[in-house]
Amino acid sequence: MEGVPIRNARRGDIPSLLLLWQAMMKELSDMDARFAPHPRAREHMANELAKWLQDPNRHVVVAEEGGRLLIGFASAVKSPGNGWQIPSQVARITDCYVIGPRRRNGVGRRLAGRLLDVLYEDGIDTVRLSVAAKDPGAHAFWSSMGWDNLEEILEKDVEPS
Amino acid sequence: MAAEYPGSVRAARRGDLQQLVDLRMRFLGETAHEEPRLRLLPDARQRTEQALPVWMGQDDRVLLVAETPAEGDEEHGELVGYAMGFLNVWPPVFQSQHVGEIAECYIAESSRGKGLGGALVKLLTEVLLGRGATVLRAAVPVTNPGARAQLDAAGYAPLQFVMERRLNAL
Ligand SMILES: CC(C)(COP(=O)(O)OP(=O)(O)OC[C@H]1O[C@@H](n2cnc3c(N)ncnc32)[C@H](O)[C@@H]1OP(=O)(O)O)[C@@H](O)C(=O)NCCC(=O)NCCS
Questions:
Q1: pLDDT, tens digit, 9 for 90 and up, residues A47-105
Q2: CB-nearest partner of A154 from B48, B158, B166
Q3: Which of A38, A116, B21, B155 has the fewest C-beta atoms under 10 angstroms from its C-beta?
Q4: Are A148 and B164 in contact (CB under 8 A)?
Q5: CA atoms of B113 and B130, how far apart (whole Å)
Q6: Over the stretch A116-131, which tens digit does the pLDDT of each residue have?
Q7: Does ligand 1 lie within 6 Å of residue A20's CB atom?
Q8: Rounded CA gap, A85 and B43, in Å?
């Protein structure tokens, strides 16, 4: 799997990216129902992906097997910091996904590594991401690459049951 | 609503601005002291002075203060804490779109342990629910187990970790 090429996403990838994104959402919501997708999530994301590929602050990279099959993708976006705490510019990895049968072959590491290389070249020195508290595998993945916990996000459901 | 906490917790007013700036700088300073990855930018005070009056006028934001009454002067108590939250309406990605965020909550050290922090969070929660929040969220630095324990006790459960990586070590 070392040889699977990682490249920037392009417009023609949008249908495959949408399938990968939906698969990622399904895994996430199976793990934790609080991440259940909105009924209009797919439609919303189809539009978003098209915008992402034109956004100069956004990077989307894909892992392509055999010159045609996307087996993973990752994305990051740059934004100003909050204005009072460091950093003054921050990037967030918003997505990183590898299809089940291709996991533990270094593809996720290479997708994330490519994003960090590009962000470093952009002058970014701090990158953040959120990982579900109920996803110890994803947490172990990022920890193995030197990521540390900064904050914990806690939630309370107040919707009448 | 503030009457539940006699003279102690209420909505922030324009006249509170200077004390609010000081309290917020103390909050941010303590956070930075505990967590150097959240240390302050040099113009943090100036930015806070500019931001607070704007936030006070925003419909989606809630700014509350805790005060200890000054003897014989109900109008001008000393501010000893504040809380800030807002209603975030997320795009249709997850089912929960109307998220009440508890962004900041601070009680000066000498006034801790009297229930004022809890009273601020309770009132903030009521206001956010009244504005349509269906879930409440709060981010706590991993270096602040006290705040974490308080939210635990208030029925909050872990949702996500925010992780960070510095790139100068690539
Ligand atoms: C997280 C994910 C992207 C990892 O992709 P991957 O290609 O399997 O990861 P890699 O093979 O590059 O793993 C690199 C290292 O991370 C760690 N790691 C990865 N997955 C792990 C797991 N499930 N449990 C423990 N450690 C793990 C290991 O140290 C691994 O090295 P090793 O295989 O030599 O032991 C993939 O599991 C995935 O798509 N999961 C579902 C979506 C998700 O949770 N994304 C993250 C959202 S923040």
A1: 999 999 999 999 999 999 999 999 999 999 999 999 999 999 999 999 999 999 999 99
A2: B158
A3: B155
A4: yes
A5: 28
A6: 999 999 999 999 999 9
A7: no
A8: 10
Residue where the block lists tokens 């795009």: B91
Ligand 1 in contact with A27 (CB < 6 A)? yes
Residue A107 CB less than 6 A away from ligand 1: yes
**Residue among B91, B133, B138 whose CB faces A154 most closely:** B138
Whole-angstrom distance, CA of residue A57 vs CA of residue A122: 10
Residues in a beta bridge with A78: A91
Chain B residues touching A152 at Cβ < 8 A: 139-140, 142, 148, 158, 160-162
Give the CATH number of the domain where residue B115 resides: 3.40.630.30
Residue B2, domain member (yes or no):
no
Task: ipTM value, please give it.
Answer: 0.96
**pLDDT at residue B5, rounded to an integer:** 42
Q: Where are the domains of chain A?
A: 6-144
Q: What is the dihedral of CA B162, A146, A106, A100, to 10 degrees?
A: -30
Level-2 CATH architecture, domain A6-144: 3-Layer(aba) Sandwich (3.40)
Residue having the nearest C-alpha atom to atom 16 of ligand 1: A141
Dihedral sign, CA of A126, A130, A135, A138? negative
